[in-house]
Design goal:
Radius of gyration: 22 Å
Strand content: under 5%
Number of helices: 14
Distance between the termini: 32 Å
């Protein structure tokens, strides 16, 4: 790390362009993962990663709204914005791989593997659309591979920063930012129902079907209806807007989100960290939808209930219970508070359809996975002892 008083020649005092030039001038040599890295290089690399992930998130948000209005287009503006983020990620993974800087061996492997999965999934998704036409769901196999590749890259970044990154005031903020992006990537498929419920409502003014009032263009509705051999009627529009079973939304949005937030809170290590990550994600969603609406794109419901899931996680973790008791208490509080908040949102604002009978199943799965988190982390972290602090 840099020592002493900063000078005009100190890269840490320069802007992004100057640091970019200095990095290649001073450090562009081949090295193994885990190579000693100046603190300013860590900060520069991770700022670029956060920028890349921001481009990907903005593109993805616009892309989901776009597909509830227009038919798919490979060169649509949202895809291009997302591609900027992907391009920056490709460059950064290449730099980590060549120099070995700002990465551990495991984080480097996660970055490389995640990027490979993503780059394989992208053309598969294009082929899927060419063969099958319109992809009506965010839950398709090709989309799942895109989410998986992105998740692996973000986990690689979290692992690198947590185990070998610099300390200081920026440490929890960078971790928090990375977890917000990870949560967004995890919950992105739920956008299918969050957009779909308002899409369907737009077609039913006064409770009577009128396709001319739908957010989606007529050509998109006709294309979707043709795929299931129907005219543009209620069943065709519902299949287009809400093709996912009603139990999926709460189990993913409450159960899986709670597990992500529990790990996030532990790694960040600050009071109310899980609530902060959930709140930051919800705030982003609350800002992006009116901007999209101003651009004449369909709106979505915002998962406000997620803030209460974060509160539930933090309350249980602050109780300092034995691990088994914490898993049971965490599952119980998350399930009750999360479903209560989701019900209140449905009554007061709007929410996707929910199969309430799934709540006990969510409780059982969260309890089992919460409990399994600690022994699994110990197994993964035997060498090197990296994410032992990140157990659920």
């Amino acid at each position: 790390m840099n020592q002493g008083t900063a000078t005009d020649d100190d890269p840490a005092t320069k802007g992004p362009v100057g640091q970019f030039k200095d990095f290649f001038r001073l450090h562009w040599t081949r090295g193994a993962a885990g190579r000693e890295t100046p603190e300013w290089v860590w900060h520069f690399a991770y700022r670029m990663w956060l920028l890349a992930l921001l481009f990907k998130m903005l593109g993805s948000s616009w892309d989901e709204s776009w597909h509830f209005k227009f038919q798919r287009d490979d060169l649509a503006p949202p895809h291009l914005i997302n591609s900027v983020g992907t391009g920056v990620a490709v460059v950064l993974v290449a730099i980590h791989s060549f120099t070995g800087m700002a990465a551990t061996r495991r984080s480097q492997r996660l970055l490389q593997s995640g990027l490979a999965v993503f780059l394989i999934a992208a053309p598969l998704d294009v082929i899927n659309h060419r063969v099958n036409g319109l992809d009506l769901t965010a839950w398709s196999p090709s989309h799942a591979l895109l989410y998986l590749g992105t998740a692996m890259m973000i986990l690689g970044l979290i692992d690198g920063w947590l185990t070998a990154g610099p300390g200081g005031r920026a440490r929890p903020w960078v971790l928090g930012g990375l977890w917000v992006f990870f949560l967004e990537n995890t919950l992105f498929p739920n956008g299918q129902q969050e957009y779909g419920v308002l899409e369907l409502a737009s077609c039913l003014p006064g409770g009577v079907l009128d396709p001319s009032t739908c957010y989606a263009e007529r050509s998109l509705l006709e294309f979707a209806a043709e795929q299931i051999g129907r005219s543009v009627d209620y069943e065709a529009i519902k299949h287009f807007a809400l093709p996912i079973p009603d139990w999926v939304y709460p189990m993913w949005g409450i159960g899986v989100a709670a597990l992500v937030l529990a790990v996030a809170g532990k790694t960040i290590g600050r009071t109310w960290a899980a609530t902060a990550v959930a709140g930051a994600y919800v705030a982003y969603r609350a800002v992006i939808w009116p901007l999209l609406v101003m651009g004449d794109f369909p709106p979505s419901t915002v998962p406000f209930y997620l803030v209460f899931v974060g509160v539930a996680v933090d309350v249980v973790r602050r109780a300092n219970l034995p691990h088994a008791a914490e898993a049971l208490a965490g599952a119980a509080v998350v399930t009750v508070l999360g479903h209560a908040a989701l019900y209140a949102q449905d009554v007061l604002i709007a929410a996707p359809p929910v199969a309430w009978w799934s709540a006990p199943i969510t409780f059982a799965l969260v309890a089992a996975l919460w409990w399994a988190g600690r022994p699994l982390a110990k197994l993964v972290n035997r060498r090197p002892p990296a994410l032992a602090r990140a157990t659920v």
